[in-house]
Design a protein that fits this description.
Layout lengths: L6 H9 L5 H4 L7 H4 L10 E5 L3 E5 L6 E5 L10 H7 L5 H8 L10 H11 L2 H4 L11 H14 L6 H10 L4 H13 L13 H17 L6 H8 L4 H10 L6
Antiparallel strand pairs: 1-2, 2-3
Length: about 250
């Protein structure tokens, strides 16, 4: 598994409606102890569906679902040559299923498979596991992350921003600031939402990563005011959790 854990993916899952599993795929993973419900006495998770690359586990009521890569237990295997041969014939759904499993790729051949995906997979296919790529050479991954941010619609690039910030590339700050400038002008940034306003959350994480990379929280006082008083309750909650300490 990659060096860094994408904690925001799990946070994002917690905010998703229980029945919106299309958006949740790949965002929560569990080890075998969690899978049988033994962790914390929770409700047991049982097999809901199995694909070539993943197992989807669910509680009986469907309120919690966990995606577990079959690479984790060795029941899925693939070589670079096999992937290269099969990739052109796979449907978009099959490619997404594979890309959602790569956090558990074995170390042998892992780097070469990630480099293949970097060159051949569309950004939306890799959005759940962007953080897995940051150990690749910065000359390869940094331009790719910046393009991913530019090509991804507002509210859906948080994982790309997180990964770019983790690289600590000298180009990261400028790219994140450029994204923030676009988001601030978005017509939906101040909209209330009974669930969550994803554009506003992306603003929040741009501010978080810029402060972590460059300091100067006073430069983002306007955004802090917007987020702390946002009409959407979950945006206000995220402000308290992620960046309020910078402005105390």
């Amino acid at each position: 598994m990659g060096k860094y854990v994408n904690s925001y993916q799990i946070q994002r899952l917690a905010l998703r409606p229980a029945d919106d599993f299309t958006e949740q795929r790949g965002m929560e993973t569990g080890n075998s102890k969690e899978a049988d419900g033994s962790k914390g006495g929770g409700e047991p998770l049982r097999l809901y569906r199995e694909t070539r690359w993943n197992r989807i586990l669910s509680t009986a009521d469907g309120k919690r679902r966990v995606l577990r890569s079959r690479f984790e237990d060795g029941s899925a295997k693939i070589s670079l040559s096999q992937l290269t041969a099969e990739w052109p014939s796979w449907t978009d759904e099959e490619r997404k299923d594979f890309c959602d499993s790569i956090q558990s790729l074995p170390n042998s051949g892992r780097t070469e498979i990630l480099q293949f995906l970097l060159k051949n997979a569309a950004f939306h296919l890799l959005s759940n596991n962007v953080i897995e790529f940051i150990d690749l050479p910065s000359s390869e991954v940094t331009p790719w992350l910046i393009r991913g941010i530019e090509k991804t619609e507002p509210g859906k690039a948080i994982n790309f921003l997180q990964a770019l910030a983790h690289t600590k590339s000298p180009h990261a700050g400028a790219a994140i600031r450029q994204r923030l400038n676009i988001l601030r002008r978005h017509p939906e940034v101040l909209r209330d939402d009974p669930f969550v306003n994803w554009v506003a959350l992306e603003v929040l994480h741009c501010v978080q990563y810029l402060i972590e990379l460059q300091g100067h929280p006073q430069d983002y006082a306007e955004e802090a005011m917007l987020l702390s008083g946002h009409p959407c309750a979950r945006v206000r909650g995220a402000y308290v959790s992620y960046i309020s300490a910078f402005f105390e």
